[in-house]
Amino acid sequence: MTGSAVGGKIPVAIVGNLNLDVRTSPIPSSVVLTGDGETSVTGIDESVGGGAANTAAAAALMGGEAHLCCAVGADELGTRLCRHLAGLGVRVHPAVKPVATGRSIALTWESHHRHFVSSLPNTRLLVEADIDLEALIRAGCRHLYRADVWFGDLMLAEGNTSLFRRARQAGMETSLDINWDPLWTTGGDHDRVGHRISLLKSALPSVSFVHGNERELALFTGAQSIQHSARLLREWGAGAVIVHRGAMGCAAATPAGWFEVPAVPVTRIVSEAGTGDVFTAAFLLNPHLPMEARLRECAAAAARHLQGSPRYTPALDSGGE
Questions:
Q1: 84-113 pLDDT, tens per residue?
Q2: Which member of 7, 22, 100, 256 lies 3.0 to 4.6 Å from 73 by CB, making a disulfide possible if both were Cys?
Q3: Would 3 be classed as within a structural domain?
Q4: Residue 191 counted as domain residue
Q5: What is the number of structural domains in the chain?
Q6: Owning domain of residue 229
């Protein structure tokens, strides 16, 4: 089944987090940040957060028809976030849970490293039954993208594997983002980390595209090089691997071979948070292109976002400017 457009737009289904992000402008790297005191920054703003929500917003602002399946709390914040996304053109399908809607503090350093401090009780309660796959198919969605997999404990147990399998049986392409598991930050319980990885590995035979940056894919596979990581992921069943490489550009391992595309140069960095999500949105909206051209479109979208023209993950209630 090939991709189709409804009303001139390409419909895509996106499953994952919706939360509030509190984002800082770049913070000077300093050991004083771990002690008492206060650090001034140029700006702090609020935005919709979550890899899935960011990707949906970017896809809608690029002209796509983005369907976001997520869980929200039964509170004003959940309503506000859904309303904001709808204003950007996202079609939100929220499952309301009896908890608070999640929040995340996104710290960005001048070194371009980032750290997130998050509490996402709503996403932990997301289950497969919250995602109406048949309705998404009727809406014209021919690609299902699963983001934020480590935050939905109930989905991780078996929901992801079942959802991907059903989507593939219906003729959809599928994408899985192997993003950062919070347990990796602390070293965590090695047995628990291994178990969580094995649960996600079981979904790979029904995944068309695995997405991730080099470090994430290395931690997931245990491989020493990105080529080895990609080879293992494909041996475990994934159809192709899309590698986000930051300033080095991007790459893809497919049945047709290995493709590399350099990053598009930027003259300034205005909006760094969410760049990977913008890249993925462009990937979802360009299924008709050959892989190398598709990657170039992704790199160009990421560069536009970095330079803030446009900002594909705009501040809350600011519109698309």
A1: 999 999 999 999 999 999 999 888 888 777
A2: 100
A3: no
A4: yes
A5: 1
A6: 11-16+52-103+121-306
How many other C-beta atoms lie within 10 A of the C-beta of residue 236?
16
Q: Which residues contact 249 (CB under 8 A, 6 or more apart)?
A: 260, 261, 262, 263, 299
Taking residues 215-230, what's their average pLDDT? 96
Residue 200's SS3 state is helix
For residue 1 the two structure tokens come to 């089944």
The reply to whether 43 falls in a domain is no
| Mean pLDDT, all residues of the chain | 91
Q: What is the CATH number of the domain that holds 225?
A: 3.40.1190.20
Confidence of residue 6 (pLDDT cuts 50, 70, 90): very low
Q: Compute how many other C-beta atoms are within 10 angstroms of the C-beta atom of residue 231.
A: 16
